[in-house]
Amino acid sequence: MTASDMGENPSNASGKHRWRSLLFVPAHLPKFVDKAHTRGADALVLDLEDAVPWVSKAEARSSLAGSITRLRQQGASVLVRVNNGLRALSADLDAAIVDGVEAVVLPKVESAEWIVAIAEEMLMLEQERGLPPGEIRLVVQIETPTALPRLHAIASAHSRLVAMALGPEDFSASVGGQPMPDLLLAPNLAVLFAARAGGLLPLGFIGSIGEFADLPRFRDTARQARELGFAGAFAIHPAQVAILNEEFAPPAHELEWARRVVAAEEAARSEQLGAFTVDGKMVDRPVILRARALLSFDP
Fold first, then answer.
1. What tens digit of pLDDT does each residue of 211-248 get?
2. Environment class of residue 103 by beta-carbon count within 10 Å: exposed (0-12), middle (13-18) or buried (19+)?
3. Could you give all domains of the chain from N- to C-terminal order, each with its CATH number?
4. What stretches of 17-76 adopt beta strand conformation (E)?
5. Model pTM score
6. How far apart are CA 299 and CA 287, in angstroms?
């Protein structure tokens, strides 16, 4: 496999994407699909995988194009999660590679080669349908320990890649454990580091995605994730969406600090200073970069 086959993953691959919340929506249930755009999520993930029983998957695929069109008309950002098995995956891609889809969410990824094979199949479908080549991106889910030693190769596998996440429930089951913070911290951090190194959005938090009854606890979990460096997360219930949107956006006091840092940097540059102080603390290049990253959220 050549470097051109693998694709260069540019450091700004995630540039135009800022997904604080990505809400899974069962693709076979119109009562959920039709209301999905009212939930406030940055992206809606029409799910063909875990949320859809096997007997309903054909129905979900057949209704997918219409659902995508309706949601796009409502201004929603639409992604589609596909299945992992070859036969189901082929049918899913045939249904999902249509105008209006922003990205495909690929579950249970274990190798860079698998991503390249999927990307090539997507390209053929785009060409057949007159869609811009490479415009539909890929979000990968890491859900087995097999993938952990290969994360950096996975994160740089192809230019379609835009985000990476750990699937906490599937990962925990694959190692025979429960989706508890003690188990999920290390693999989540590994995904975070690989995603950042590859220029991808790191998605996730340290806990179970299924725990939405205790919303104050969920808020603490989301806040911790942002402090660790995650950019957003998947949600399975609408109640999680507003919390993710709030907690993955920097609070007002951090934005004010960032403005002070940038203003002080401009003054220091005129004095040819490489380091300076703000609020009694030393500021140098890494701190400046963090301040500028925070201000990218500033409306």
1. 888 999 999 999 999 999 999 999 999 999 999 999 99
2. buried
3. 3-249 (3.20.20.60), 253-295 (no CATH)
4. 21-26, 43-47
5. 0.86
6. 21
